[in-house]
Amino acid sequence: MSVVTNTTTIGAIEAPSRRNTELLLLAFAVVIPIFAYANVGLSIHGELPPGMLVYGLGFAVLSGIAHLVVRRYAKYADPLLLPIATLLNGLGVVLIWRLDQSERLRNLAKRSFGTFSESAPRQMMYTGLAIALFSVVLLVLKDHRVLQRFTYISMAGALVLLILPVVPGLGADVFGAKIWISVGGFSIQPGEFAKIVIAIFFAGYLMVKRDALALASRRFMGLYLPRGRDLGPILMIWAMSLLVLVFENDLGTSLLFFGMFVIMLYVATERTSWIVIGLLMSVGGATVVGMTASHVKVRVTAWLDPFACYTTSGACEQVGQSIMSFGSGGVLGTGWGQGNSDLIGFAANSDFIFSTVGEELGLTGVMAFLLLYGLIIERGVRTALAARDPFGKLFAIGLSGAFALQIFVVAGGVMGLIPLTGMTMPFLASGGSSVLANWVLIAILIRISDTARRPAPAPAPSPDSEMTQVVRPS
Q: pTM value?
């Protein structure tokens, strides 16, 4: 005797979205900057800042909006990216407000420009615009693979963004670097957005050409050297980065673009030879430009021995002050609002804002910030590994590599490890272009991670499997 039962197919198990985890982490990311803001006010003025409630509520509302957008339109996205970016952005506003309270910077601005205006309110406004742009990207960009259609258009767009700062009447020369354009009284740094646009081109191009670029013609000293005609792409990017460096005096952007391409090229081809060739070309190009371009030569001189030209060069004075800031911070720092990094001058809240971290929060604070940046990079790399399509893998690794290179060149420059580049510390430094571009970068990584972690749809039921006879012995 036997029993016949009917069974049906079972659908895919729903994966956890981790949005509640994100919300809990986001609460900490909002509370920590508010406590830091209160600490700065008590340290400098002996009382809580008057705008503490408005700042706290405004920051909480902006963070809540970003979370709701992610919860609704990127349900399976990585739960760490948004809270870490929020924490860094909030602490950046606090650091900028702390420098706004400096009497030295106030008097310097009045002597130079006749008036002084605080940068923290503008940074908070830029943060609101950045959150709005972050939401728009997630609303409009339903699938990151759509960007692959614009591979060569993005190359043209990146070139336009790089050329704009040297257009007469549009570009602006700020402290020797031609990386800004002025439109209607507002200054924009196109290079911050160009790094995202050109990553689209690199990902789309390498996805198609990676097989040809991976071929090797000969083996030399343990390395597989590429064919001569396959060196064309890297030579083109190398030449473009040198042109940016020569015409715009922008060491940071040229290093960022070339480094990002080499990283993506290595990931696409898995050939170590590309890394070696890229390093040799970058060192050669930097050496030639460093010996010929006056602006770069000054920064190299300040890097080699800032105290030898301390009284005769502004770059040497800035680097020297920055090194002394890190040195006086020690392990635990002098405390919020108790440092003298404002001696650096106008660059204290932009290029050298990390010096304030080193002095007032010490080595502990520096390592904490670098750990937060490292987590963003790690989550970006993890997203690249989880992505199911080659374009998404290359795009995510390109954005993560660009973010990592920017952290390295900025932190290394202010610490005296490498020459100054003039780039801004993501989320910390004052400036609308930087905060807008980096929030767009986070939005794209969230979109790719959502696609990568989204569970695959259950297969369509088959008529033959819906009524399956299972015979069980009685």
A: 0.89
